[in-house]
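Design a sequence for this backbone.
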């Protein structure tokens, strides 16, 4: 099974971009370490196509790199930078443009025959990230509608993380509200594996 993780810095997690076999140090590496013993009879080829700072427009521009490797399953995680760059670079991505970009990425992945798992972008309740919330909510609603329309599995990461952090400090899962700690990465990996099991 060729499994591709496609996303931004949350997926990249410090991987060596010059080494296509490097999985980084985040949830992708943890998921790979768990999947192989869980399914010893499955010949996994796991690739990390995460690039830090990418928005939907950048993923759309390089989706051909993913389809070229002919993946069996793609885990798609993107969206928070479409909000973040509004504040750092004043680059505004409208709800309509976000939906067009995201839908086009999904369409390209479907055309290559891959099964797709969507992962919600998220932001935790950390002081300087609270301004992200209204914009991220809009994008999440778009992703949920695409998941419904295309009948795709969706990991509701924003909902789950914000649920568990009612009783646990958000910094336990993402110190800056976005980039996951090791504990956060383990949580993400387990949620994705739960969906992947349905394809086994």
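Sequence:
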């Amino acid at each position: 099974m060729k499994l591709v993780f496609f996303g931004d810095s949350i997926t990249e997690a410090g991987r060596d971009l010059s080494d296509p076999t490097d999985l980084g140090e985040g949830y992708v590496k943890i998921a790979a370490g768990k999947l192989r013993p869980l399914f010893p009879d499955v010949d996994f080829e796991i690739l990390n196509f995460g690039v830090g700072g990418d928005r939907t427009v950048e993923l759309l521009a390089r989706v051909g790199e993913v389809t070229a490797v002919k993946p069996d399953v793609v885990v798609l995680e993107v969206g928070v930078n479409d909000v973040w760059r509004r504040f750092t670079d004043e680059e505004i991505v409208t709800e309509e443009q976000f939906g067009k970009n995201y839908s086009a990425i999904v369409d390209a992945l479907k055309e290559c025959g891959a099964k797709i798992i969507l992962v919600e972008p998220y932001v935790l309740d950390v002081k300087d990230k609270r301004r992200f919330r209204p914009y991220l909510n809009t994008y999440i609603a778009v992703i949920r509608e695409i998941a419904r329309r295309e009948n795709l599995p969706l990991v509701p990461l924003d909902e789950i993380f914000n649920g568990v952090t009612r009783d646990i400090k958000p910094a336990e899962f993402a110190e800056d509200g976005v980039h996951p700690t090791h504990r956060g990465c383990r949580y993400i990996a387990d949620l994705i594996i739960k969906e992947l099991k349905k394809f086994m």
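The radius of gyration is 16 Å.
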